[in-house]
């Protein structure tokens, strides 16, 4: 059993990107610039944006965080998006979710220029990804594919079961794994909350990708020997720790891991790869501008 160490791979990617940025700026090129919009004071969002800011600093990107009170109007936020779209110095724009209930997240995503949509959420990028065309791919699915590549896990012909049908992870990773590529060519089954007898699907899976947000959902009797397990789920579970909680994945790791050929831990698996992929998308966007 091999642990897919996302923390280690993400560090390698950041080191590679730092070298690339030094080459670009060394010949007089523009330093990539990522802008994050943060509305309100959601603790998890603030932590996540701060980690993105640190990662930008490490690789030599310019970064800007725009903070807004949770009382701002949707109209004002749309005006801010339009302003950043027109700012030639900014290459990538993300608007951290969740947003306050009075703001339509879809409207904000649709307003971001596809060329600056480094989250890969805009319909133009989703459509290009679905057709197998060059695009900015949603950061978490991209991070999963990168992990498979870095560990040399060739997936051609595998039966893959994806648990969860979100537009951010489940559906895009199902699409990417089904495409013709060295790290695709899977036969993909997408399971969700209305799937009957999920275990009958997972037991026949050579690879399971789970993003349910249900701690410990995947048990050892749901996984066959030698399977690859990618755990995207992360949930704060109350615990007697200094922080008052621990982060748990969808997989009952201690019992499932011994049966696997490869498995991601939580934390330290897919999470760090998401931020690394966001940086890769920003660099890609910068080079296309």
CATH topology of the largest domain: Rossmann fold
Looking at how many chains there are and whether they match, the oligomeric state comes to single chain
Characterize the biggest β-sheet.
Answer: 6 strands, parallel
Roughly what is the average pLDDT, rounded to an integer? 95
Q: How large is the radius of gyration?
A: 19 Å
- Name the shape in a single word: globular
Q: Structural class from helices and strands?
A: alpha/beta
Number of strands: 11
The end-to-end distance, rounded to whole angstroms, is: 43 Å
CATH superfamily name of the largest domain?
Answer: NAD(P)-binding Rossmann-like Domain
Low-confidence stretches: none
* Top CATH class of the largest domain: Alpha Beta
Plain-language structure description:
By secondary structure, the protein is of the alpha/beta class. The chain folds into two domains: 28-114, Rossmann fold (3-Layer(aba) Sandwich), CATH 3.40.50.10860; 139-271, NAD(P)-binding Rossmann-like Domain (Rossmann fold, 3-Layer(aba) Sandwich). 39% of the residues lie in helices and 18% in strands. The chain has ten helices and eleven strands. The chain has helices spanning 6-26, 43-59, 74-85, 105-111, 123-130, 139-150, 170-178, 198-202, 253-256, 270-288, and strands at residues 2-3, 33-39, 62-68, 92-95, 159-163, 187-191, 207-210, 227-231, 235-238, 245-248, 260-263. The strands form three sheets. It has a six-stranded parallel beta sheet with strand order 1-11-8-7-5-6. A three-stranded parallel beta sheet has the order 3-2-4, with helices on both faces. It is globular. The mean pLDDT is 95.
């Amino acid at each position: 059993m091999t642990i897919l160490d996302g923390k280690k791979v993400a560090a390698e990617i950041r080191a590679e990107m730092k070298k690339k940025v030094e080459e670009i700026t060394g010949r007089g090129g523009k330093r990539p610039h990522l802008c994050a919009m943060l509305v309100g004071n959601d603790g998890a969002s603030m932590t996540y944006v701060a980690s993105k800011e640190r990662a930008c600093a490490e690789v030599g990107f310019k970064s800007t965080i725009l903070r807004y009170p949770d009382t701002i109007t949707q109209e004002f936020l749309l005006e801010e998006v339009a302003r950043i779209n027109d700012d030639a110095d900014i290459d990538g724009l993300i608007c951290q979710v969740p947003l306050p209930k009075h703001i339509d997240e879809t409207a904000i995503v649709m307003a971001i220029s596809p060329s600056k949509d480094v989250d890969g959420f805009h319909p133009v990028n989703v459509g290009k990804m679905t057709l197998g065309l060059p695009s900015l791919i949603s950061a978490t699915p991209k991070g999963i594919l990168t992990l498979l590549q870095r560990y040399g896990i060739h997936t051609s012909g595998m039966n893959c079961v994806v648990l969860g049908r979100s537009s951010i992870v489940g559906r895009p990773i199902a699409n990417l794994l089904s495409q013709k590529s060295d790290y695709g060519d899977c036969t993909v089954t997408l399971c969700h909350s209305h799937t009957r007898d999920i275990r009958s699907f997972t037991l026949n899976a050579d690879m399971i990708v789970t993003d349910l947000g249900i701690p410990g959902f995947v048990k050892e009797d749901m996984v066959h020997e030698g399977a690859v397990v990618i755990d995207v789920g992360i949930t704060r579970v109350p615990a007697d720790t200094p922080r008052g909680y621990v982060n748990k994945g969808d997989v009952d790791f201690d019992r499932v891991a011994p049966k696997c050929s490869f498995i991601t831990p939580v934390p330290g698996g897919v999470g760090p790869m998401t931020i690394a992929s966001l940086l890769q998308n920003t660099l890609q966007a910068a080079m296309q501008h």
